[in-house]
Design a protein that fits this description.
The structure is a homodimer of 652-residue chains.
Chain A lengths: L3 H10 L3 H10 L13 H17 L17 H14 L1 H21 L2 H12 L5 E4 L15 E5 L4 E5 L7 E5 L7 E10 L7 E11 L11 E5 L11 E6 L2 E4 L9 E2 L5 E2 L5 H10 L2 H26 L3 E4 L6 E3 L4 H32 L6 H32 L1 H4 L6 H8 L9 H13 L11 H11 L11 H9 L13 H29 L3 H33 L4 H21 L1 H6 L5 H18 L3 H6 L19 H7 L3
Parallel strand pairs in A: 1-5, 2-5
Antiparallel strand pairs in A: 2-3, 3-9, 4-8, 5-6, 7-8, 10-11, 12-13
C-alpha cells in the first residue's frame, strides 16, 4: 500500500507522472550524483559528459515533432528538464540551452530544411548550439538588439555584423567553448528591387561560429565570461561578428522570408506582432526555468527540513535531550510556509505545462489562449524563481555553519539558481508584462509597445480586464459560492473566504491601477512621469494576479488527490499558503477593509496553528516532493564523511 | 571646499574618521585591489600575503594594550578591520580571526605570561592562531561544548581530548592550513586534594596544533572543510584531539586558575556568570562582524546604484534616449531604501564602537553597561548582517546578467557575507538574546539559563523592562517632546512622530511578550510549550528594539553633521528609513491603532515621495559611503574589459 508521502508525490507529479518516475530512476545513475567543483574546465566537461549520457538515452526527443525526428511530447520535454534541476543546475541549464533554446529556435522558427539539417543532430549532440539573443547593451528590450543581418543579393548571403561594442552577444551559454553554431537574433536588413534598404526587425539566423577543433571561424570572435555567481558547468561566453557571411537559407524562415532578390515577405503583416509571435513560440524556455527553480527550491527545503529533524540545540527543562530544531516554533515558521508555497507553485506549474502541451499540439490553437499562456508562463517564472531565491537562502541560514559548507549542497543550489530571476526575462520586467496583458485584455496592439505606451493604451481599455478562473473552474466556483463567512477567526481557514480575498485584491488592484494611470496622465505633462507614478502599483497588481492563479491551482490540485490522509495534509498546507500570502500583504487587506483589526490578528494565530498541526508531518511533506534517491547530496544528512560528496569538495 | 558627498562621508566616518581615512589610502595599494578566484590554494595564499602586508604596516597594534605590545585603541582596531571588508571579505575574516578572535582571547582571557609570550608575535604574524570554539555538535549553545581539558596533577598538565565525533572542532578559520596554535574552548575538569573530579565549565586553553612544517602535532588531527559558499581565502578546518597534553600555564587564567595540586579558583563564584564574563570580553568579534557586513553592503549598493546611473533600457516617448534604470520608480524603490538603511546602521554602528571603546578603556566600567553593550552588539550584528544579505542580493538582481558575472564583484560579496548571519552567533539566537536581556532587565541570574528558563524568569520580573534612549538623549527627547502631530499625511515626515511610533511599538511588544508568557505558563503543562508559544513574538520584540536604537542613532548622526546641504539629504534619508521600517510592519501599527487606514496609505506615498526627492542625489549618497578608490572592483563600471579584474576571473 502506498504511503502518505507516496500519495503526495503522485498528486504533485501530475499528468507527466511517468516521465517523472522514469527520470527519478535515471538520475540514480552514479554519473548524475550531485558533485561540486568551482573549477570551470572540470565542471564544463562534467556537464557535457552528463548530457552525452542523456542523449544516449534518447532524452531530448520529446521536445521535437515526430516528423522532425523527435517524439513530440512537449510536456514531457519540459518536465524531464525540470527534473534535472534536482541533480545539477549546470546540467539543467546546459541541456535547456541545447535542446530548449537552441533546439527550440530551430524547431519553432525554422522550416523543413532546417529540421532536416539540424534536429536529429542536435538531439544526438552531434551538433552543439547556443542561443545568441542577449547583447551587452540589450537584455530586457530585445527588439532593440543592434546586431545586423544585412542581405546581399549579389551573393545571396546575409552578412552578420556587430556594429558597436554594446552589440556584442553576451552571457551566451555554450558560446565560450562547446557550441559550434549559434542561433543569432539580429536586425534583418534588406531591400527588394527598387526599395530602400531597411530593418525588418529582429529575426533569427543559424550562424556557424567554431570549427571542429574549437577555433573561432573567420570573422567570429568569441570570449569567455569566466567565473559567474554559480553554474560553473555552463560555458557562458561573448560573440562579436565582423561581417560574417551565411547563406540566405540560414534565416529561420517560418514567419518571414527573404527572396533571392532581397524581397522580404511574411504571413504576419504587423512587424510587432510578427516579432512577438516568433518570441511566443519560445515560451518553453520560460516555463522550464520556472519549473527548474521550483525543483531546486524543493531540494533546498528538503535538506533544511531533514537537518531540523536531526539537529538538536539547547536543553529543555525536564528533559535529558536537547531540543530538535524543528520543534522550535520559529524554525517551523521559517520552513513550513516555504513547503506550503512549494506545493502551491508546483500545482500551478503542472497546469502551466499541461496548457503549454495542449496548445503546442493544437495547430488551430486560439491566439488569445497563446497570449494567456505566455502571460501565465511569465507570472509563474517570476513566482517560482523568487521563491527559489528566498527559500534556498532561508534553508542555508536554517542549517547554520553546516549550511555554508559546499558538501552540504545548499550554497551551490543558491548560487546556481540565483540568476534564474534574471534570465529568460528579468522578474520585474516579466511582472510588468503580466500586468500589461491583464490591463489591456491581451490586445494585439500592445505587443512591442514600450511600457509607457502600453499603459496609455491600457487607460483607454479600462474595464475590460479579463478575469477567469484558471483551473477546475467548477470546483472553484462551488467553493466560493458555498462559503459561509463570519467574523470569527475560524473563517480564515475557510477556503472560499481565502479565494474571495485573493480575487478581490486582484480585481481592486487592477482596476485602481488603470484608474490611477488615467489620473496621472491628465495631471503629468510627461507621459513617462505618468507611467512612473504608478509603476509600483502595477507590479503589485501583477503579484496579486499570480497569487490568485497559484491558489486556484492548489485547490484544484487537492481535488485531484485520491487519498484522504494526503488530502487532509494538503488542505492544511493550502491554509498555510493562503494565510502566508495574506499575512505578507495584510496591511493592504486592512487598508481596503477586507480584514478587520481583530481578524487581522487572527492571521498570525492561524499561521502558527497550522505550523503546529503540520509539524508532526514535516518529514512526510518533504518526502512528498519526491526528490530522487541520492539527489539530496548533502553530507550532513548521511552522517559526516560521506565520501562521494566530500571527495569533490576538498581541495587537492 | 568639501563637496556634499565629502560632508556625508565625514559625518558617516564619525569618531575614528582618521583611521578610516588612513585605511582608505592604504587600500589603494594594488596588492589590495579586489580580485576573484575560487581556487582555495590561491585565495588562501593571497589572503595571507595581504595580512603580512598589513602586519608590516603595524595594522594590528590598535587591538592590544600598550603594555602588551600594542597601542590600545580598541575602537580603531574594530574600524580598521571593518574597512578591510570593502576590499576583500576573506582578508577581513582572516584578519578578524587572527587579531580579533585568537588575539582577543589571549589579550582578554590571558594574563601577563600569555601577553608576554604571544601578543607581539601574533601582531607581527610570527604566530598564526585560530579560535577553536564551535564544535560539530554545538555552535549556538557553547556551554555544552564536549571537548575536555582534564588536569593531571601528577604531571602538571591539561589533557585536551575530543571524546565524541560531535566534539570535533568544526568550521574553524585557520585550522585547515595556516594556524600553528589554537585557542581551544573546553570543559575544564579538575579536582583539588580530596575533591571529586568535575567540570568547572568551559574555559579557554592555548594548544599548539602544528609544527613549523605544517604537520599536525602528535594527537592532533586536522582536516579541511574544503569549499564553502564563499570566503575562499579563509582556510576553515576541523580539529580532533586525542589526549593532547599541554602545560598548566596554557590555561588562559584571567578569570579562573588551577593550582599545581588541581585546586580550582576563580574571582567569580557563579559558574554561569564566570563563563559569560569571559565570553563578554570577546564582544569585539560580534561588533566587527556586524560592521564588516555593513561595509560590504555599502559596496554592493554602490555598485548597483552606479550601474543604474549608466545603464539604459527601453525607450521613453518623446525622447531619443533610452531610460536610465535609476529613473524608474521601481528601481529607486529597490535601492534608495537600502541606501537609507545603510546610513542608519552605520550611525548605530559608530555609537556601538564608541561605547565598546570607552568601556574597554575603563577599568571600572559598570557591569550593567557591559551587559548593555553585549546586547547592543548582538542586536546590531543581527541588523547589519541581514541587511547585507538582503541588500547585496537586491543589488545583484538589480544589475541583471551583468550582476551575475564574477568580474562585477556582486556575487562574491553575496557569497562571502552569506555566513555573517551565522557566525559570531546565529541571528535568530542573538535576537532572542536581545529580547532576553530586555525582558529580564539585564539581570545577572539569567546568564546561562536555557531559553525556557530565562523566559520563566522574565515573567517574574515583568514591568522592569529597561528602556533608555541610546544616543544623544537630550536631542532625542526634545524632538519627541516638541512634535506636533495630526492625522494628515505630512505628519509621517515628522521625526518626533516617527520616533514615538518606534518607541510605542517596542514598549508594547515587550510588555505583551512578558504578559503572554505569563499566560502561556499558566495554561501549558510543559514549560517548553509555553516558551514556544510566544517565541515568534519575542523575536519581533527584539527587532522592534533594534529598529528603535537604529533610528535614534540616525537622528543623533544627523545632528552631528555640520553641512546644511548634507544635513537636508540625511533628513530625507532618515524619513525614508523610518517609513520603510513602518511599512514593513504596517499591519502591526494598524492592528494596534497606531496608524489609521488613511494614514497607513500615506506611508507608501511618503516612501515614493522621498524616493523621488532623493533620486537626483543618488550618486552623491553612494559617494558619501566613502568606498576607497578602486575598491569597487566592478568591471562594468569601468567599461568592459578592465584588465585588472577580468584577468583574475577568466579561466586559464
Amino acid at each position: 500500500m502506498a504511503s502518505t508521502a507516496e500519495h503526495l508525490t503522485s498528486t504533485l507529479d501530475g499528468r507527466w507522472k511517468e516521465v517523472r518516475e522514469r527520470t527519478r530512476s535515471e538520475l540514480t545513475d552514479p554519473r548524475f550524483a550531485p558533485h561540486y567543483t568551482p573549477d570551470l574546465a572540470e565542471a564544463r566537461a562534467k556537464a557535457l559528459e552528463q548530457m552525452r549520457v542523456l542523449a544516449s538515452m534518447g532524452y531530448a526527443a520529446d521536445g521535437f515533432a515526430a516528423d522532425h525526428g523527435g517524439t513530440g511530447d512537449a510536456g514531457a520535454a519540459v518536465v524531464s528538464i525540470e527534473m534535472l534541476a534536482m541533480s545539477d543546475l549546470s546540467l539543467m541549464v546546459k541541456a535547456g540551452v541545447q535542446w530548449g533554446l537552441f533546439g527550440g529556435a530551430i524547431e519553432n522558427l525554422g522550416t523543413k530544411p532546417h529540421h532536416d539539417a539540424y534536429v536529429k543532430r542536435l538531439i544526438d549532440l552531434d551538433l552543439l548550439g547556443c542561443y545568441a539573443m542577449t547583447e551587452t547593451g540589450h537584455g530586457s528590450d530585445v527588439q532593440e538588439l543592434e546586431t545586423t543581418a544585412t542581405y546581399d543579393p549579389s551573393t545571396g548571403e546575409f552578412v552578420i555584423h556587430s556594429p558597436t561594442p554594446s552589440s556584442r552577444k553576451d552571457f551566451i551559454g555554450g558560446a565560450a567553448q562547446h557550441a559550434t553554431v549559434a542561433s543569432v537574433f539580429a536586425q534583418l536588413i534588406t531591400a527588394g528591387p527598387g526599395e530602400e534598404r531597411e530593418s525588418k526587425g529582429v529575426h533569427c539566423f543559424v550562424v556557424p561560429i567554431r570549427d571542429d577543433e574549437g577555433n573561432d571561424l573567420p570573422g567570429v570572435s568569441t570570449s569567455d565570461c569566466g567565473y559567474k555567481g554559480g553554474l560553473p558547468g555552463v560555458d557562458n561566453g561573448r560573440i562579436m561578428f565582423d561581417q560574417v557571411r551565411i547563406p540566405r537559407g540560414n534565416l529561420l524562415n517560418r514567419y518571414a522570408d527573404v527572396a533571392e532578390d532581397g524581397t522580404y515577405s511574411s504571413p504576419i503583416e504587423n512587424p510587432n506582432k510578427r516579432f512577438f509571435t516568433m518570441l511566443g513560440t519560445l515560451v518553453r524556455g520560460r516555463i522550464t526555468v520556472g519549473g527548474s527553480a521550483g525543483a531546486a527550491a524543493r531540494v533546498g527545503i528538503t535538506i533544511a527540513t531533514k537537518y531540523g529533524l536531526q539537529r538538536r540545540q539547547f536543553n529543555a527543562p525536564k528533559s535529558d535531550n536537547e531540543v530538535l530544531l524543528m520543534d522550535y516554533l520559529v524554525y517551523q515558521r521559517r520552513l513550513l510556509p516555504l513547503i506550503a508555497r512549494s506545493y502551491a507553485l508546483q500545482f500551478a506549474q503542472n497546469e502551466l505545462v499541461a496548457k503549454f502541451h495542449d496548445i503546442q499540439n493544437d495547430p488551430d490553437a486560439d491566439p488569445q489562449e497563446k497570449r494567456e499562456l505566455e502571460g501565465r508562463a511569465a507570472g509563474l517564472k517570476v513566482a517560482n524563481t523568487w521563491h527559489a531565491t528566498r527559500a534556498i537562502q532561508e534553508a542555508r541560514e536554517a542549517c547554520g555553519g553546516a549550511g555554508y559548507m559546499a558538501e552540504n549542497r545548499l550554497t551551490a543550489l543558491k548560487a546556481d539558481t540565483d540568476v534564474f530571476t534574471t534570465f529568460e526575462g528579468d522578474n520585474h520586467v516579466l511582472a510588468q508584462l503580466v500586468a500589461k496583458e491583464l490591463l489591456t485584455a491581451y490586445a494585439d496592439e500592445v505587443q512591442g509597445m514600450n511600457p509607457v505606451d502600453w499603459m496609455r493604451f491600457a487607460v483607454t481599455t479600462v474595464g475590460d480586464v479579463v478575469k477567469k478562473r484558471t483551473a477546475a473552474q467548477q470546483i472553484l466556483q462551488t467553493i466560493v459560492d458555498t462559503r459561509q463567512d463570519n467574523e470569527e477567526d475560524g473563517s480564515l481557514f475557510n477556503r472560499g473566504t481565502q479565494m474571495q480575498m485573493f480575487e478581490d485584491r486582484e480585481d481592486y488592484m487592477l482596476s485602481t491601477a488603470a484608474r490611477r494611470l488615467q489620473g496621472a496622465q491628465k495631471r503629468e505633462d510627461d507621459p513617462f512621469d505618468a507611467f512612473n507614478f504608478v509603476q509600483d502599483h502595477v507590479l503589485r497588481a501583477a503579484q496579486a494576479h499570480i497569487d490568485r492563479v497559484v491558489l486556484e491551482a492548489f485547490v484544484a490540485g487537492i481535488d485531484s488527490c485520491g487519498d484522504e490522509t494526503a488530502k487532509a495534509l494538503l488542505n492544511d498546507l493550502c491554509d498555510l499558503y493562503a494565510l502566508s500570502v495574506i499575512d505578507e500583504d495584510k496591511a493592504w487587506f486592512m487598508e481596503h477593509r477586507h480584514l478587520s483589526v481583530e481578524r487581522a490578528k487572527a492571521v498570525l494565530r492561524g499561521i502558527n496553528e497550522r505550523c503546529r498541526s503540520l509539524r508532526p508531518h514535516a518529514e512526510t511533506l518533504v518526502e512528498g516532493f519526491g526528490i530522487p534517491e541520492g539527489a539530496l547530496g548533502s553530507a550532513m544528512l548521511d552522517g559526516p564523511g560521506t565520501d562521494a560528496v566530500r571527495m569533490a569538495t576538498v581541495p587537492r
